[in-house]
Amino acid sequence: MKVSVRTGVQRTMMVVLVAGALAIAPAGSASAAPTHSASVSASRVAPAAKPVIKTFANCTAMHKVYKGGVAKSGVKYNKVNGKNKAFKIKPAISTALYNANKKMDRDKDGIACEKG
Fold it and tell me: In tens digits, what is the pLDDT along the chain, a chain of 116 residues?
């Protein structure tokens, strides 16, 4: 039997939701089945912390943290006069960080504060 990835993910999410509901249920609930808190607590998933997106005042401030600037994901080359050039210093790849500092991408090539 072939199971798609999507079906597997849906089943996993259902297990997590059911386990979360069991963990939240009050202790005096009328259910006849005993709850096993050890197995439920092992399946809890902590939400991922959101990364802090910093907005820089200018390219000099950005270069202190990111030497080659910041590029949105999918950018492979630095475009100079319509031609693809290799990076002198590879930029950090982060779409969220690029979007926060988009004003510093003067040539609109997807890289803010690139060097070279």
Answer: 555 555 555 666 555 555 555 556 555 555 555 555 555 555 677 777 777 789 999 999 999 999 999 999 999 888 888 888 888 899 999 999 999 999 999 989 999 999 87
Q: Going edge to edge, which strands form the sheet with 70-71?
A: 92-93, 70-71, 111-112
Q: What pTM was computed for the model?
A: 0.55
Residue in 110, 61, 58 with CA at minimum distance from that of residue 84 = 110
CA distance 3 to 11: 11
Sign of the CA dihedral running 104, 105, 107, 108? negative
Amino acid identity of 24? I
Q: What is the Cα–Cα distance from 85 to 77, expressed in whole angstroms?
A: 6
Ordered by start, the domain boundaries in the chain are: 5-42, 59-112
